[in-house]
Amino acid sequence: MLTQLTVSNYAIAERVELQFSKGMTALTGETGAGKSIVLDALSLAMGGRADAGAVRHGAKRADITASFDVSRIAEARSWLEQHELDDDHDCILRRVISKDGRSRAYINGQPCPLAHLKDLGSRLMDIHSQHQHQSLLHKDTHRKLLDEYAGVETLAGDTREAWKIWSKTRQRLTERQQNADEAEARLQLLRYQVEELDRMALESGEQESLEQEQAHLSHADTVLLNSQQAALLCTEEDNSAADLVRQALQQLENLPTEVPALADTIQMLNEAQIQISEAGDNLRRFVEDYEADPARLAEVEERLSAIYQMARKHRIAPEELPEFHQRLSAELASLDDGEGSVAQLEAELQSQRTHFDELATRLSEARQQAAAKLDQRIADELAQLSMPAVQFVTHLNRNAAGEPSPCGLEDVEFLVSANPGQPARPLAKVASGGELSRISLAIQVVVAQTSTTPTLVFDEVDVGIGGGTAEVVGRLLRTLGDDGQVLCVTHLPQVAAQCHQHLFVSKFTEQDATFSKIETLDDHGRISEVARMLGGVDMTEHTIAHAREMFTKGQATHH
Fold first, then answer.
1. What region, left, alpha or beta, does residue 113 occupy, with left being phi > 0 and alpha being psi -120 to 50 degrees?
2. Using CA atoms, how far apart are residues 559 and 551, in angstroms rounded to an integer?
3. What whole-number distance in Å separates Cα of residue 462 and Cα of residue 491?
4. Paired sense of beta strands 455-459 and 513-520, if any
């Protein structure tokens, strides 16, 4: 809901600050007073086109800020969160236009592209104007309103998701079919490479283990020879280590007297003699049991050679072969299902199409039922708006050959026939500005209970009507305001008398400069303005009495 609008140096408005509340707000004033300033400023705040002429003469820039309460607008809150611009329940749109025509856009104080302002603005407000493109002229809006009226937004969302899944599968299938020869060549290469690696059956860490075993086997002769020599040096030769230690002990044992200081040394030599003897025994047993295995060495070297050759073939390090094997196997599994993936994708595509058709058919049936009811209700409202001859048709146009689309099996478009006997045609091609505003009003009244757009703006929706029809327009606008927020520019007292809030626009001249002024009227001011709208400049007691009666009736009718 729009809560505040601040306008600085825009058109003839030097400074305007307006507070808005829920309900119907009417903007009135003399022709040329600047009523369009509010609507144009709101349009700019939502990303509308701007030019240098918008800046007040003598000012450097125009600054427009629109504040909204989005606590009850889930779609807007989701958009803000998605773009990391959320700020509790507040949403502030700002547009700054410099006198050279350049403009800057902000959302909650953060600079943003103009497209973001438009995208978010469309979720906050819908302007129905005679002089600009509006959402009611777009078929996307027609479909959205119909789906909301039918209560099938969830089903429409499921249908859209089913179409996305089907579309992606179709794209994959098309790519596979277009690259069939290339894919088949890749498939054959993968099969050969994986089979070759399967035969090798290389295990993780096997190469390192083989290299260690190769190093051991290739030095077997040296190990055996050195071990034999070590055994001889320990115990089996003259002057062996054991014999030399024994001689040293004999020298100490033959001393003429006992020397206590040498007791530890003698003990150490005795222990050394024992350890040398044991080491010699161990070496002899090792030499007796040790076997050089030339056949195993040849086998290990052959296996390593095959590993190195395979690594060179694939231009990778030998240790990378196991992981490379797994990667190729996974790619082969994803492509090879016996007949190739084309058959599998075709089956998936058919299954997904069946699911889409089921959802889309349910959606179409719900739309058809809702369209008939919507057309009748809008026709009833148009009759109240003095447009009984206008035929309104919600047209469901089946897609060519039933081709799936994100929206289901059909496009939705609102058509009208302005005169009896004429075929129904799109709104933009048939309805005039005033007619379009009233048709917009009729549609919005009917879908008000289901529409997600919280703020509706109608610019001179009452053009070309009067009397009882004008009173009906006011009643309908007020009804819309009861459930949301409606802003309307009007010239009719019957409409203005029924609003919840009344803004009066005037202009004045001061020191050769023209200024626009907008003020919120109290009840006395509202009666005076209704009287002015009834009787012009010269207001008689009768005019004022009539205005008071109209105002009292307009307010009482809705209680």
1. beta
2. 13
3. 7
4. unpaired
For residue 302, count CB atoms less than 10 angstroms from its CB and return exposed for 0-12, middle for 13-18, buried for 19 or more: exposed
* Mean pLDDT of the region 206-227: 82
pTM given for the model: 0.59
d(CA 502, CA 519): 8
Instruction: Decide if 32 contacts 491 (C-beta within 8 A).
Output: no
Other CB atoms within 10 A of residue 549 CB: 13
Residue whose C-alpha is closest to residue 425's, from 434, 417, 433, 436: 417
Q: What is the rounded CA–CA span in Å between residue 559 and residue 535?
A: 28
Dihedral angle sign, alpha carbons of residues 124, 128, 133, 138: positive
Between 511 and 261, the higher pLDDT residue: 261
Q: How far apart are CA 206 and CA 212, in angstroms?
A: 10
Q: 148, 452 in Cβ contact below 8 A? A: yes
How far is residue 128's CA from residue 394's CA, in Å, rounded to a whole number?
A: 19
Q: How many helices (H) and strands (E) does the chain have?
A: 19, 15
Starting at the edge strand found earlier in the chain, the sheet holding 455-459 runs 125-128, 455-459, 485-489, 23-29, 501-510, 513-520
Q: Which pLDDT score is estimated for 266?
A: 84
Closest to 459 in 3D by CA, of 127, 98, 74: 127
Tell which residue, 274, 285, 277, has the closest CA to residue 236: 277
Beta strands 455-459; 485-489: pairing state: parallel
Give the separation between CA 75 and CA 68, rounded to whole angstroms. Answer: 13
CA distance 70 to 65: 16
Mean pLDDT, the chain, integer: 84
**Per-residue 3-state assignment (H helix, E strand, C coil) for 449-504:** CCCCCCEEEEECCCCCCCHHHHHHHHHHHHHHHHHCEEEEECCCHHHHCCCCEEEE
| Look-up of token digits 């049936």 | 365
Higher pLDDT, 541 or 69: 69
**pLDDT per position as a tens digit, 421-435:** 788 888 777 656 667
Between 116-125, 265-274, 339-348, 421-430, the lowest mean confidence (pLDDT) is in 339-348
Three-state DSSP at 196 gives helix
Give the CA dihedral 303, 308, 310, 315, nearest 10 degrees.
170
Crossing angle (nearest 10°) for helices 241-253 and 263-289: 160
CA 534 from centroid of its chain's CA atoms: 52
Q: How many CB atoms lie within 10 A of CB 219?
A: 12
Contact present, 124 and 76 (Cβ < 8 Å): yes
Element (H, E) at 304: helix 294-314
**Which of 491 and 508 is assigned the larger pLDDT?**
491
pLDDT in tens, 335-351: 765 444 677 888 888 99
pLDDT-derived band at 58, boundaries 50, 70, 90:
confident
